Amino acid sequence: MGELIFIGLGLGDERGITLRGLEEAKNADMVFAEFYTNYVPNSYIERLEALIGKRLQILGRIDLEDMVDERLLKPALSGRVALLVPGDPMIATTHMAIRLRASRLGIPTKVIHGVSIVTAVI
User: Distance between CA atoms of 6 and 73, rounded to whole angstroms?
Assistant: First the structure.
């Protein structure tokens, strides 16, 4: 059985990921990332890939909103799939909807929270 793991990257550079998030990403069969709501330079992605030791598959808005079953959930039916998200993954309603969809399909999910702008402001 597979699993879908939402991993918050925190704020700032690649060092914002928690140790638990880093461990989960390293142990995943596939690592996806989405940055469509947050601009990140290519150098950030390269440093994050070096830290994790895996190539990231970058997903866009269409992938997560219109093609989520094919792009993200299908691989999670049989493998450990990580989705890296800037800040905290559960701040965005899109990620909550994906988690609910995964649950309906019988895919276990896990959330590794990260620091978000919301918690930083408070």
Answer: 12
Q: What is the pLDDT of residues 59-89, one digit of tens each?
A: 999 999 999 999 999 999 999 999 999 999 9
For residue 30, the tally of other CB atoms under 10 A from its CB is 17
- Nearest-CA neighbor of 84 among 24, 19, 2? 24
Instruction: Look up the pTM and report it.
Output: 0.95
Q: Where are the alpha helices (DSSP H) in the chain?
A: 19-27, 42-52, 61-65, 68, 74-76, 93-104, 117-121
Superfamily of segment(s) 3-121 = Tetrapyrrole methylase, N-terminal domain (3.40.1010.10)
